[in-house]
Amino acid sequence: MRYYPINLDIDGREVVVVGGGAVASRKCLRLVAAGARVTVIAPALDTTLATMAAGRQVNHVARKYAPGDLAGAFLVFAATGDRGANRAVAAEARDRGILADITDAPQLGSFTSPAIVSRGDLLIAISTGGRSPALARRVRTELETRFGPEYATALAVLGAIREKLLTETGNSAYNKKILNALVDRDLPALVKNKSRDDMDRLLVELFGTGFTLAELGVKEKDPA
């Protein structure tokens, strides 16, 4: 395994994306969703990026990459169709000590972006170390079928219960035991079957009064 898996908090961080095509737009959608301040450097943008720029979700610098464009960046993505430009971005990132994803030459960068399955706060990352994005996409498709939107709601329930338990009791060993018991009852299946009454009965059975979905503040349907 060459790469070390890690989750980065990029909320409010400066990120530069060099390139304006489909690959760059996919990167930007994820970056904006994570709260990054994104600058896109490209002479032209695809439809998705043009819409994002018009809505001020990203800042567009309408020209080719030039040395010095990475100043102040926390992350950089090189996603142009110009191999020379991508390598120049890699070199500047390396000189400045900036983490870089070079999409057409992963070995020149310092990280790669995994394929992901996102269900609310549940994030499943799939990486082939840059060797086969096609295989990563296939695995992602399989996981999307296995882990549906019910996992977002199940995680919201578990998170609300954990927060309530941490607030009301300091017995961490007991908390862990009963949370594991809830996970073992296949909470996602109850969510998928829309068995809110069954869920409420199970929660009260395991945790006592005050732990119904309504009392935990869990909505009828949490976004995936």
Helix content: 40-55%
Instruction: Write down how many β-strands occur, each being a DSSP E stretch of 2 or more residues.
Output: 7
CATH hierarchy, class of the largest domain: Alpha Beta
Low-confidence stretches: none
Helix-strand category: alpha/beta
User: CATH superfamily name of the largest domain?
Assistant: NAD(P)-binding Rossmann-like Domain
**Main beta-sheet annotation:** 5 strands, parallel
Q: What is the CATH-assigned architecture of the largest domain?
A: 3-Layer(aba) Sandwich
Shape label: elongated
The neighbouring-strand order within the major sheet is: 3-2-1-4-5
Elements, N to C (H/E): EHEHEEHEEEHHHHHH
Please describe what this structure looks like.
This protein has three domains: about 100 residues, Rossmann fold (3-Layer(aba) Sandwich); about 35 residues, Double Stranded RNA Binding Domain (2-Layer Sandwich), CATH 3.30.160; about 70 residues. It is about 45% helix and about 15% strand. The protein contains nine helices and seven strands; from the N terminus they run E-H-E-H-E-E-H-E-E-E-H-H-H-H-H-H. The strands form two sheets. The protein has a five-stranded parallel beta sheet, with helices on both faces. Strand 6 and strand 7 form a beta hairpin. Helix 5 packs antiparallel against helix 6. The longest helix is centred in the last third of the chain and has 19 residues. The protein starts with 13 loop residues before the first strand and ends in an 8-residue tail after the last helix. The mean pLDDT is about 90.
